[in-house]
Amino acid sequence: MTVQKRTSATGRHKAFSEHNVGPAQQGQHGGLAPSLPQFGHISRYWDREHHCYSAKLLPGEYYVTTTGEQIATVLGSCVSACVRDRRTGIGGMNHFMLPQDGSKGTSAWGAAVSAATRYGNVAMERLINDILKLGSSRENLEIKLVGGGKVLGASAIDIGARNIEFVRKYVTDEGFCVLGEDLGDVFPRKVQYAPATGRLRVKKLNAVHNNTLFERERTYAAVLDKESVGNDIELF
Amino acid sequence: MTRLILTVDDSASMREMVRATLQSAGYQVIEAVDGQEALDYARENSCDLVISDVNMPRMDGITLIHELRNLPNYRLTPLLLLTTESSAERKAEGKRAGATGWIVKPFNPEQLLATMARVL
């Protein structure tokens, strides 16, 4: 899917003027504009093919930009929500999967409050809140969903399907405007999202030769299962 | 008597999760979608405890706490903030505004209920 439904010119201009961020990347000579302070740890590179800087997301990370950068990642069974403000072109992308249920002892509350749902909610809310804080409102957000492949073969558990089910329900419950999705199937995906224009490029990859991808997702899944979901409480 | 809890969050899914958790423990739940709606409710009604998000349109959770503490009915009411924010600076702002406690999302249902029981 290469979805491109909106022109960028006015949105981008507005984003720059409203937030006082200079024209960050008119080419290699312009240099790399600083990221928002909370994203200093995200690695960025010059994308020769598309002539812009690109932030590279690993599983569990998210990124928001005001400067017309792209955001890139490779998805196996993980999903990404691509979220932007249609007026300002400010937006971002996350990359996450749900933790496996069962180890958190939350059966008393059922699926609505399972550890998986709670984690997924926060993965979405962090991204959306950071965009809202830059002057956006929920009604102006538009979303594209991508990923959730059944990449580990027919015999494996379909982790991708759970992630898809969650993210679709989330955007429906929240009443967000979903412009497009490329979910499921059996392929890993290389994705590039440009919040300034809303363009999402998706390239389906050969599933057989992606050991690095599978290893990263397995490591991420193992961390999620060990992490205790919800322990940070402070009484004043 | 059933305790009445006011929950405030701009995310419908988060409101649903908090409501499901509280109702499972026998609490009665009133929901507001932002700080302003919660404050409008609180000006006319008392409740036993408030759980509020921080980042919301119209009125954020920290301003809400500050406003609630100025209402005679809410001077002693436990006010909990439930948020994705975890920085020491934001927590300090919440404390200064008069919050009773700070819970970082994702919340653990058992611990949320245990915390409420402690402050009620």
Structure description:
The complex is a heterodimer of chains A (236) and B (120). Chain A has four helices and twelve strands; from the N terminus they run E-H-E-E-E-E-E-E-H-E-H-E-E-E-H-E. Chain A is of the alpha+beta class and 236 residues long. Chain A has a single domain (2-226), classed as 60s Ribosomal Protein L30, Chain: A (2-Layer Sandwich), CATH 3.30.1330.200. Chain B contains five helices and five strands. In chain B, helix 4 (88-97) links the parallel strand 4 and strand 5. In chain B, strands 2-1-3-4-5 form a five-stranded parallel sheet, with helices on both faces. Chain B has a single domain (4-119), classed as Rossmann fold, CATH 3.40.50.2300. Chain B is of the alpha/beta class and 120 residues long. Classes of the chains: A alpha+beta (236), B alpha/beta (120). The A-B interface holds A 105-106, 108-110, 112-113, 115, 117-119, 121-122, 125-126, 129, 132-133, 137-138, 170, 173-175, 228-236 and B 10-14, 16-17, 20-21, 24, 55, 57, 84, 86, 91, 94-95, 99-112, 115, 118-119. Strand 12 of chain A pairs antiparallel with strand 5 of chain B.
How would you summarize what this structure contains?
With 236 residues, chain A is α+β, with helices and mostly antiparallel strands.
